[in-house]
Amino acid sequence: MAISEYRTQREKDKFIETKEGKTAIRISPELTNGIVKFDANDSAPNYIGINKTRTAATSEGTWTVMKFTYDGSNVTDIETAYGVWDDRASLFP
Q1: Which phi and psi (to 5°) does residue 12 adopt?
Q2: Is the full-model pTM beyond 0.70?
Q3: How does DSSP classify residue 43?
Q4: How far apart are alpha carbons 43 and 79 in whole angstroms?
Q5: Is residue 28 part of a domain?
Q6: Total domain count, the chain
Q7: Is 92 a member of any domain?
Q8: Which of 35, 45, 51, 80 is the most exposed place for a label (fewest CB within 10 A)?
Q9: pLDDT per residue as tens digits for the range 45-93
Q10: Which is more confidently placed, 32 or 77?
Q11: 36, 48 in Cβ contact below 8 A?
Q12: What is the mean predicted confidence (pLDDT) over 23-40?
């Protein structure tokens, strides 16, 4: 398998199809004891933070943070950064 094919397959493996036929993000098995934080604006998340340690403080620099960009109600981009949940906005200049 060529490197580009391997990368494509790894990207595809990050997603699953739900029973309803929708696409969802596959959560790593490492996170079964972790925590997920939401910073929601109305009903849509602006930021989601994931930490594999359930008791992690939001001030710890061990968070994977995702920033969602929307066009209307449709997600157009998801950016990812690593750092402190409390400073999530500053992770995306």
Answers
A1: -65, -35
A2: no
A3: T
A4: 19
A5: yes
A6: 1
A7: no
A8: 80
A9: 899 998 988 899 999 999 999 999 998 888 889 999 999 999 999 999 8
A10: 77
A11: yes
A12: 66
